[in-house]
Design a protein that fits this description.
By secondary structure, this protein is an all-alpha fold. The chain has one domain. Helix content is 69%, strand content 0%. It contains three helices and no strands. Helix 1 packs antiparallel against helix 3. The protein is elongated, with a radius of gyration of 20 Å.
Length: 80
C-alpha cells in the first residue's frame, strides 16, 4: 500500500512539476507573453499563478481520494 501511495504521489508531483516548469519557462524566455491581459485586466502571470495554486489544491485532493484506505466490507446481519 505504501509503495502504491508513493507512486501516485510521484506521478501527481510530476504533473505539477511540468505545469510549474511551463510557468518558469514562459517567465524566463517569453516574458512579453506573460504581460497579455486576456481576462478582466489580469495578466497571464497572475492567472497562471492562481491556476498553479488551484491546481495544487486539486491534485492534493485527488491524492487524498486515490490513497484513502479502503475499508473491509461489513456484514450487516439483522439482530434477533
Amino acid at each position: 500500500m505504501q509503495s502504491r501511495n508513493s507512486r501516485i504521489g510521484l506521478i501527481l508531483f510530476t504533473i505539477y512539476l511540468i505545469v510549474y516548469g511551463g510557468f518558469v519557462f514562459l517567465n524566463a524566455f517569453a516574458p512579453h507573453q506573460m504581460e497579455a491581459t486576456p481576462i478582466a485586466g489580469l495578466n497571464i502571470a497572475v492567472l497562471y499563478g492562481f491556476g498553479l495554486i488551484i491546481g495544487a489544491i486539486l491534485l492534493s485532493g485527488l491524492y487524498g481520494f486515490l490513497c484513502r484506505e479502503k475499508s473491509a466490507p461489513q456484514n450487516k446481519e439483522p439482530r434477533a
